[in-house]
Design goal:
Length: about 210
């Protein structure tokens, strides 16, 4: 009951984005082959809100891994959500969800889907680190409203082992690219990476 009341009070706080600098371009590793995917109508409606999120959806291939990846950047927690809700809404059966350390830098949640036939993972990332906990993301907003966070949500085409070296390498590559972007924005350093965000807001686009 206390949590429900707290979330209700937090929900009354209006999103603030005017103090947030646009994040720098994200340079994905060369071994990750990607192409843009359009946001669904439902995704466009969700991200078109006063929180001013910027969202990018990609189809990717990374070694033996393939799937889709959604990145959503915003300072306001209202722009983010637990991705399992979207998976269920899109017709996926969620078998299990568990906190998982994909590597020393990425604290994520790992999902088994479709009777073990597919896997998914997500985490929330700020310049200071990562969390798999949406409530932690909300509490941080209360204390640091002008801090940019990126939601990383990955849906794999097949089942994978979260403890495998390929998942470790994949998570490290994505984490490091986002960390470089976020820390460049905080320090005010210009990015040498060209590219644009495909987004619903007016911030610069990210991927080339």
């Amino acid at each position: 009951m206390i949590v429900v009341i707290a979330l209700g009070l937090v929900g009354q706080i209006q999103p603030i984005q005017d103090k947030v600098k646009p994040i720098a371009s994200i340079q994905l590793p060369q071994q990750l082959v990607s192409e843009p995917l359009p946001l669904t109508e439902a995704e466009q409606r969700f991200f078109d809100n006063p929180a001013l999120p910027i969202a990018q959806k990609q189809r990717f291939v990374y070694g033996n891994l393939s799937g889709s990846m959604l990145l959503v950047a915003s300072s306001a927690w209202q722009a983010h959500h637990p991705p399992e809700l979207c998976l269920v809404g899109n017709g996926f059966k969620v078998d299990s969800i568990k906190p998982t350390l994909l590597n020393q830098s990425v604290k994520a949640r790992w999902l088994s889907l479709q009777d073990g036939k597919r896997s998914a993972t997500y985490w929330f990332q700020s310049p200071q680190g990562t969390t798999d906990d949406f409530l932690s993301r909300i509490w941080d907003y209360i204390a640091h409203r002008n801090k940019t966070w990126v939601l990383v949500s990955v849906l794999f085409d097949n089942e994978h082992n979260p403890d495998s070296a390929e998942i470790d390498n994949f998570a490290s590559a994505i984490h490091d690219a986002i960390h470089q972007s976020l820390t460049s924005a905080v320090s005010g350093q210009p990015s040498a990476v060209s590219g644009q965000w495909s987004a619903v807001s007016h911030w610069p686009k990210v991927f080339s």
